[in-house]
Amino acid sequence: MTRTVSGAVSGPTRRSLLAGVAALGALGAAGCSRVATASDVEGGDLLERLRAAGVVRLGIAGEIPFGFIDKNGELTGEAPELAKVIFKRLGVDRVQPVPTEFGSLIPGLNSQQFDVVAAGMYVNPERCEQVIFSDPDYQMLDAFIVRKGNPKGLHSYKDVVAKKAKFATGTGYAEIQYAVEAGYKESDILIVPDQVAGLNAVEAGRVDVFAGTALTAREVVKKSAKAESTKPFTPIVGGKPHVDGGAFAFRPTETNLRDAFNVELRKLKKSGELFRILRPFGFTKAEMTDLTAKELCGG
User: Which keywords has UniProt assigned to this entry (predicted)?
Assistant: First the structure.
């Protein structure tokens, strides 16, 4: 949650450098029907159409804790639960998940496969050229999964390089870029599917460290007898400390919906209800944020 990444171009994402073109095929294979095409109304009329239909389609990436289908077959996660509250306040009673790969979310959104991306997607300038974002509902630092006691003393990407540690991260994760910026050779990075595979790699001794978000790192090690997570830290991007923020994505034509969404989001932040919604998914008060999409898009 990741970074020059965008859904259809290249660059860092919270979690995704995955290409968008192939992802479109995945969407089609999933048999998702298209939503109605955009209108000529200035700022878009999607909110009115969603109210009339009574349902909003959410693009999710099946990633715990951001947006996933639980063991009971129910849609849940940080973004879907927040979407349920906000869209109900906007007059849309139901949400419907459209699961897909993370790298297909932006192409799928812009090709009308679903109405909103609800996957805790990081906001970055590359993505801001393709979609518009709500303000972030959370901010996130990085953390490492290491063996108990952190024997190599790894607390930053520079440490990983200096101590020649065996390094792993997830498919399409922004942490790939962060490690490369610190001087780690990209071809030497072990790429695994997700944080569970990363934990397994550390426990088995195949790598010294797995990098991910602070949230996913601390959650996945809770039941491990062999591994622990490091304290959260700020990665360096372009020579400066960088804090990521996750948000909802909308088609560029749908500013009316995005603006209405932001109004309700701000109310939830002010009342403290936002934290109550996100807390069950492992978020802490340190991950609540006043960052704006404008800031993260580069001004």
Answer: Signal
Distance CA 238, CA 110 (A): 29
Q: Which residue's structure tokens are 């990436």? A: 61
Give the range among 2-11, 78-87, 89-98, 276-285 with minimum mean pLDDT.
2-11
Identify whether the C-beta of residue 145 lies closer than 8 Å to the C-beta of residue 199: yes
User: What is the rounded radius of gyration, in angstroms, for the C-alpha atoms of the chain?
Assistant: 19
Helix axes of 78-89 and 255-271: crossing angle, nearest 10 degrees: 100
CA–CA dist 8, 170 (Å, integer): 18
Helices (H), 135-254: 157-162, 175-181, 195-203, 214-220
- What are the pLDDT digits (tens) for 227-275? 999 999 999 988 999 999 999 999 999 999 999 999 999 999 999 999 9
Cα-based distances in Å from 6 to 115, 161, 184: 18, 26, 22
Closest of 265, 231, 246 to residue 77, by C-alpha: 246
67 DSSP assignment: B
User: 254, 223, 288, 277: which is closest to 117 by C-alpha?
Assistant: 254
